[in-house]
Amino acid sequence: MKDVHVPRPGETLSDAILQHLKYSLGKDAAHATTTDWRMALSLAIRDRIVDPWFASTRATYAKQGKRVYYLSMEFLIGRLLEDATVNLGLMDEVAEFFDDRSLDARMVMQDEPDAALGNGGLGRLAACFLESMSTVGCPAYGYGIRYEHGLFKQSFEGGRQMEAPEDWLTEAHAWEFERPESSYRIGFGGAVKVLGNRTVWQPEETVLARAYDMPMIGWQGRWANTLRLWSARPETVFDLDRFNAGDYYGAAEPEALARTISRVLYPDDTTEEGKRLRLKQEFFFTAASLRDILRRFEDEYDDWSILPSKVAIQLNDTHPAIAGPELVRLLHDEKGMDFDAAVEAARGCLGYTNHTLLPEALERWSIELMRSLLPRHLQIIERIDAAHAAAHPDRKVVLIGDGDVQMGPIAFTMAHRVNGVSALHTGLMKETVFAELNRLHPNRIVNETNGITPRRWVLAANPRLSGLITEAIGDGWVDDLEELMQLEPMADDAQFRDEYAAAKRANKVDLANYLGQQGLAVDPDAMFDVQIKRIHEYKRQHLNILQTIALWQEIKDDPKGDWVPQVKVFGGKAAPGYVFAKEIIFLINAVAEVINNDPDTSHLLKVAYPANYNVTLAERLIPAAEVSQQISTAGKEASGTGNMKFALNGALTIGTLDGANVEIRELVGADNFFLFGMTAQEVVARRQIDDHAAKAIAEAPRLKRAMDAIASGTFGERFASITENVSGDDYFCVASDFADYWRASRDLEVAYRDQADWTRMAVLNTARSGWFSSDRTIRGYMSDIWGAEALSV
Ligand code: CJB
């Protein structure tokens, strides 16, 4: 899309939109489609971002500020137009503009494709961080991959998950600036040669990494950073010889092979080829980013020894962990720095965030794979490993062991700070996966509890609540979220509570209408209970659905009883190769089918599972939620961030002592949080008991009855893999936590009956969740890890 429109000083937003419609899109208002309007608006908004964006870059140069580089395989940015409009304070003007033309501004904004360049929490955290880094004025770049296809689109067929490719780039969008001049040649394979006193890697295959930039504007447009995504291109676009010989497919092969690298988010890594591609993706974007970082440094400075004082590089999980060895290679092999000094400089720059203790998620690559793709890096890792062994003769951790290159320990040894994402998770990191490395490097691990951006997750997503808050305490909360504390006394103010409850009710009506459009009628006065996140055994959606079945059975026993009507909402995708998770999805849909069509109970209990959960759907569900399900097996959820979004939007949590739930409960108060389940330590002990699941089932007749119903075919299939798992090994302790979960769920219902008191608790959740702003998290990283200072334009 060519932008031919030059904004003139004094031009109103309305003029700018109309100008773009005419001159950039070649349409007049009478014939404009929703997409035309959306593009015209986007371009008009984009024009207003460019100046602050340039000014931020200039300010960083002028002040020789330290820059932060956030390397992440995922940026789950979702839609950008509404975010940018809200941050520029232009929402009212935009709404008025479309009102005047009998169009709905929100509908226009919702025409934007939802950029799903991430899988879940890790990618969404990266997106919140980009916004917060701009809001607090931290000079920063996000670096990632410009996937042609983001996370697959989910649909249900007969209750089963179907996957279709996502295609965001085929739809018009306004945010990218292609930078053909910023291209780097990235190599793979080949040989390592020693030429004189230099070691030279001569790759056999190369691809080009081409940059695409998106501006990321902070609150009130005070600062804007860049998200730079790399797209893979072939060096030879076309093999003319093969084409001339009649081999038309073969002629296009080099291009197809190169482009595969940035084609899709997270290819299936269950096959060797899949693993190879995944490692290629990781090296591709990491290497391009590092070259870009060093190029920018060299433009300004000529002394490599000051690199760590000017450059902070954060590794978002182990995916970019090859950055350590690659930075050493660049500094030593290419810039001529002494090897040990290169290692020190690299470590001075690098920080590593761990996001999970699940052993299967800590990446490792076979030595053969590493040797065939990155032979020089393997040598460098061996040398760093040897130095580490020499410095710590009693060490038990190795960087290369069991035939694999261990990316977790590599990230740890190559970083000056390693952080966990909640207090509990950081503690467990020290005690479990990184116990040995923590012993050797006792001050390296720090905690930075996750956060979320209030601009998107309250101000934009929940305008009713935002308006109420601003009326009550002014708008200072938007970039100083702890100001929400001023709402605390209003929890006891009946009028405020009524207004707060009215905002929630209106959000529920919106959601009820949305579900209605999808064919499910729900009562907006029912209790809205929501569990939205990736489908995973440790997140225990199956615990929730078992509880739902048990509840349905009790209601059916006594349909005239005094029940709290409720809607159980599920949302989330399962990895395409994760058979058990897909079975959980199938079970939820099968249960929904039966329960929703049961004439005895359907006025009291409904199960909703809207397909294709994504950022946009989250923005719809969270403001309408009253109950937030955070029920992972304790010790397994590193932090969670959905839990924070719900609490802030006034949903009460039913949850375990896991991840950031612990901190949420401490802050909102134990009385305003529905706790259940074993602690992380108790879970570990419980697993030692023989037949712990069978014993738990024997003591929980409701669970037994629910499992029997499944096994007897009440929901069509018999779902043997699920019932056998829960009654067998039950690693995630669904059976053992069931009874207490049931108890907490009933406590919730009792509490819900007293609406005034419920709203009081909800207000307290909002008032006391201000600490979970990602602005606070970013300031923590800046002071504890990056040593970076906020600048202003
Ligand atoms: N997480 O989304 C992912 N993907 C991974 O591969 C590993 C972890 C999640 O990261 C979030 C952000 O830190 C956490 O809140 C969440 O608990 C964790 O599962």
UniProtKB/TrEMBL annotation:
<keyword id="KW-0808">Transferase</keyword>
<keyword id="KW-0119">Carbohydrate metabolism</keyword>
<comment type="function">
    <text>Allosteric enzyme that catalyzes the rate-limiting step in glycogen catabolism, the phosphorolytic cleavage of glycogen to produce glucose-1-phosphate, and plays a central role in maintaining cellular and organismal glucose homeostasis.</text>
</comment>
<dbReference type="InterPro" id="IPR035090">
    <property type="entry name" value="Pyridoxal_P_attach_site"/>
</dbReference>
<comment type="function">
    <text>Phosphorylase is an important allosteric enzyme in carbohydrate metabolism. Enzymes from different sources differ in their regulatory mechanisms and in their natural substrates. However, all known phosphorylases share catalytic and structural properties.</text>
</comment>
<dbReference type="Pfam" id="PF00343">
    <property type="entry name" value="Phosphorylase"/>
</dbReference>
<feature type="modified residue" description="N6-(pyridoxal phosphate)lysine">
    <location>
        <position position="645"/>
    </location>
</feature>
<keyword id="KW-0663">Pyridoxal phosphate</keyword>
<dbReference type="GO" id="GO:0005737">
    <property type="term" value="C:cytoplasm"/>
</dbReference>
<keyword id="KW-0328">Glycosyltransferase</keyword>
<keyword id="KW-0021">Allosteric enzyme</keyword>
<protein>
    <recommendedName>
        <fullName>Alpha-1,4 glucan phosphorylase</fullName>
        <ecNumber>2.4.1.1</ecNumber>
    </recommendedName>
</protein>
<comment type="similarity">
    <text>Belongs to the glycogen phosphorylase family.</text>
</comment>
<dbReference type="GO" id="GO:0030170">
    <property type="term" value="F:pyridoxal phosphate binding"/>
</dbReference>
<dbReference type="GO" id="GO:0008184">
    <property type="term" value="F:glycogen phosphorylase activity"/>
</dbReference>
<dbReference type="InterPro" id="IPR011833">
    <property type="entry name" value="Glycg_phsphrylas"/>
</dbReference>
<keyword id="KW-0963">Cytoplasm</keyword>
<dbReference type="GO" id="GO:0005980">
    <property type="term" value="P:glycogen catabolic process"/>
</dbReference>
<dbReference type="InterPro" id="IPR000811">
    <property type="entry name" value="Glyco_trans_35"/>
</dbReference>
